[in-house]
Amino acid sequence: MALLCDVIIADESAKIGDPHVKVGLVAGDGGAIIWPQLVGYARAKEYLLTGDLMGATTAAEMGLINYAVPADQLDTKVDEMAAKILANPRWAVRWTKAAINIPLRENANKISDAAFAYELLTNLTQDRQEAVAAFAAKRAAQFKGE
């Protein structure tokens, strides 16, 4: 969800990723839409298909987020960025954002229905049930591809 924000600033100790596949689910709630837009298909596939997490500094270096800052500087950086945006004419900012988001909206319209449907279907699989049971039992999941 955070990756859909206009400017993303994270504590440098944050871990970022989309671990849906690790719990037997499709990344149906936005990951399949926004990751390729931000980092390209090759990296998006790597992280979405493995469910691996990365540090915020790595995420900033690859363009997944804008900034990774020390925790004690987070509020200052957020305030600084907000002030920069707010210092510009409101309608210029608003309509620039609207124009930039046109291809994102088009992709979301193309992908969302299928992604949500696939995510729903994965809730019905034995591997998803195993993921939930393993989490509840605090043990490693034993996936069988079912």
Structure description:
With 146 residues, the chain is mainly α. The protein has one domain (2-137): 2-enoyl-CoA Hydratase, Chain A, domain 1. The chain has helices at residues 31-39, 41-50, 56-62, 74-86, 90-100, 102-122, 126-137; strands spanning 9-11, 15-17, 53-55, 67-69. Strands 1-4 form a two-stranded parallel sheet. Strands 2-3 form a two-stranded antiparallel ribbon.
Structural topology:
Blueprint: E1 9-11, E2 15-17, H1 31-39, H2 41-50, E3 53-55, H3 56-62, E4 67-69, H4 74-86, H5 90-100, H6 102-122, H7 126-137
What's the gist of this structure?
It is built from seven helices and four strands; from the N terminus they run ββααβαβαααα. The protein has helices spanning 31-39, 41-50, 56-62, 74-86, 90-100, 102-122, 126-137, and strands at 9-11, 15-17, 53-55, 67-69. Helix 1 packs across helix 2 and helix 1 (31-39) packs across helix 6 (102-122).
